[in-house]
């Protein structure tokens, strides 16, 4: 046996034959042969790991169909796992075979087998070459084998957490690249074990670990696996750990944001409270207190809005997200709070400050003045000759759209308060028709003024019929211009909610509009936004709240 001198690199068949020949090294001759080949075997295992570490489990098994048999046999050879770094390298190889998304029963069974081998390797130490002695030792401690291994994992986690925290406090550069390599190795080791509850403290310590290197020291596989497990609610992490994950790994933040949008698109909202609950549960509004996260999430939302042609549902999600972000930002400790410019670095800062003021922060008697201030600033910006490109215009529009709460209040104030209608109507006309090519916005403004004048004439009437609103309804049903249709729908819906006689014909009127046009979702989202604002502002109008609920119940069946 001992005469094999040199072994060709990655001679898989040779080492599989050796592993079968050695078994668990129970004879003196096999033990001698194992010892003779240990350095070469370790080199082979290292080369094997380097070959499969980036290929994925499926490709690795296709390349080496008998890899499971080889690794399984070596894991039970006490001389192999007791030699230098062979035990660690075997773990890394097993991690490469683990399927993060098992597609069938075979892969599920393979994952279970790998976990059992990893637990075996974790519970093995260099002096545990005799199973009977090990069992006797465990029994003497008063544990069953299962209890012992459970405590062993916990102790290993505590040990690694302590080690990492000491490195953190002492500074990574003390041990240089060796320390960074060690942290990277620990992160790789965690990948197949991420959903083990006992491992959570180690996951959080790794995520919060920052060394002196400008490069990311945690493996991308680890970061992706943690994010995946968190999104699927297989693990629970502290907010700080999740925020650190998204800050250090952009693909995870992008995936979390897209996952959130998919989640919200897949459910029928009955209220914006439900949307807010899903948003808060994702932790993204809270994480957005960090400007880097906010700007990336905002960019993804912006792209989603463009891809869906500006649907009201996507816009509503963005507006609720912005409100929750502002709450989180206001709750931040003053010492850690970033200035608004960090979130909106390229925007006109006075306009930003005007938009971020929440309505409830101001007396209702000041709302009309504040709306005029916003409208005047916006108009000056839009009509500035420096804003020449459609991209610049879109960025200004998107900023305003994110703070849609003020737009809904603008439509309400037009009908219920003493406002300067010209300024407020211009604000709404800009939102629904930001471009002024071929005088589109100017024409929209003319249409809006006509509708507004007609509705104000009827506002105090207590006895109304659908015929009285025929002119306004025709401007919705008789036009194919989306911006005119949406703006008129916004004004008319508010008229029905807040006028003296609108309540009586609200259901009939909205039924007629949504039956003859494609505005069901527009009206529905407007109604749930209004209901959400009523619930959170303390405004008491039982008649309007009752009507809102009735209209929402009717529209839920159509949307």
Automatic annotation (TrEMBL):
It comes from the Eukaryota. Coiled coil: none annotated. Pfam families: Fanconi_C (PF02106). One of its GO terms (biological process) is nucleotide-excision repair. GO terms for cellular component: Fanconi anaemia nuclear complex. This is FANCC protein.
């Amino acid at each position: 046996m001992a005469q094999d001198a040199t072994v060709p690199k990655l001679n898989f068949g040779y080492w599989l034959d050796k592993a079968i020949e050695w078994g668990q090294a129970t004879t003196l001759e096999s033990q001698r042969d194992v010892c003779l080949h240990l350095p070469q075997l370790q080199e082979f295992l290292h080369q094997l790991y380097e070959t499969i570490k980036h290929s994925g489990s499926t490709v690795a098994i296709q390349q080496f169909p008998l890899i499971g048999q080889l690794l399984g046999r070596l894991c039970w050879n006490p001389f192999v796992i007791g030699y230098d770094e062979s035990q660690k390298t075997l773990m890394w190889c097993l991690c490469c075979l683990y399927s993060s998304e098992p597609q069938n029963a075979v892969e599920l069974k393979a994952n279970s087998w790998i976990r059992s081998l990893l637990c075996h390797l974790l519970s093995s130490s260099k002096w545990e070459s005799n199973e009977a002695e090990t069992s006797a030792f465990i029994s003497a401690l008063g544990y069953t084998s299962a209890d012992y291994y459970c405590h062993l994992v916990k102790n290993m986690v505590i040990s690694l957490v302590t080690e990492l925290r000491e490195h953190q406090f002492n500074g990574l550069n003390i041990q240089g690249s060796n320390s960074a390599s060690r942290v990277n190795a620990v992160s790789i080791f965690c990948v197949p074990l991420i959903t083990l509850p006992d491992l959570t403290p180690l996951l959080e310590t790794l995520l919060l670990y920052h060394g002196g290197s400008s490069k990311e020291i945690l493996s991308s596989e680890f970061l992706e696996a943690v994010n995946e497990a968190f999104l699927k609610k297989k693990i629970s992490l502290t907010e700080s750990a999740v925020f650190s994950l998204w800050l250090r790994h952009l693909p995870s933040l992008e995936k979390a944001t897209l996952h959130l949008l998919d989640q919200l698109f897949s459910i029928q909202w009955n209220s914006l409270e439900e949307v807010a609950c899903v948003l808060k549960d994702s932790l993204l509004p809270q994480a957005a207190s960090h400007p880097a996260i906010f700007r990336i999430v905002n960019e993804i939302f912006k792209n989603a809005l463009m891809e869906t042609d500006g649907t009201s549902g996507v816009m509503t999600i963005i507006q609720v997200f912005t409100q929750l972000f502002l709450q989180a930002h206001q709750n931040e400790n003053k010492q850690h709070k970033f200035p608004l410019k960090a979130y909106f670095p390229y925007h006109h800062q006075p306009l930003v400050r005007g938009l971020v003021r929440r309505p409830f922060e101001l007396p209702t008697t000041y709302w009309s003045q504040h709306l005029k201030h916003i409208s005047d600033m916006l108009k000056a910006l839009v009509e500035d000759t420096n804003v020449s490109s459609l991209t610049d215009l879109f960025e200004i529009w998107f900023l305003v759209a994110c703070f849609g709460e003020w737009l809904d209040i603008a439509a309400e104030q037009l009908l219920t308060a003493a406002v300067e209608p010209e300024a407020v109507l211009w604000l709404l006309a800009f939102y629904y028709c930001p471009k002024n090519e071929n005088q589109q916005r100017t024409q929209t403004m003319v249409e809006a003024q006509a509708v507004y004048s007609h509705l104000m004439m009827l506002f105090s009437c207590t006895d109304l019929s659908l015929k009285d609103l025929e002119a306004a309804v025709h401007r919705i049903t008789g036009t194919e211009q989306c911006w005119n249709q949406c703006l008129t729908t916004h004004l008319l819906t508010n008229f029905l909610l807040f006028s003296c006689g609108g309540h009586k014909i609200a259901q009939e009127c909205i039924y007629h509009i949504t039956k003859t046009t494609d505005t069901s979702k527009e009206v529905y989202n407007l109604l749930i936004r209004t209901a959400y604002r009523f619930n959170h502002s303390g405004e008491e109008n039982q008649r309007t709240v009752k009507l809102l609920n009735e209209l929402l119940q009717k529209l839920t069946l159509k949307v």
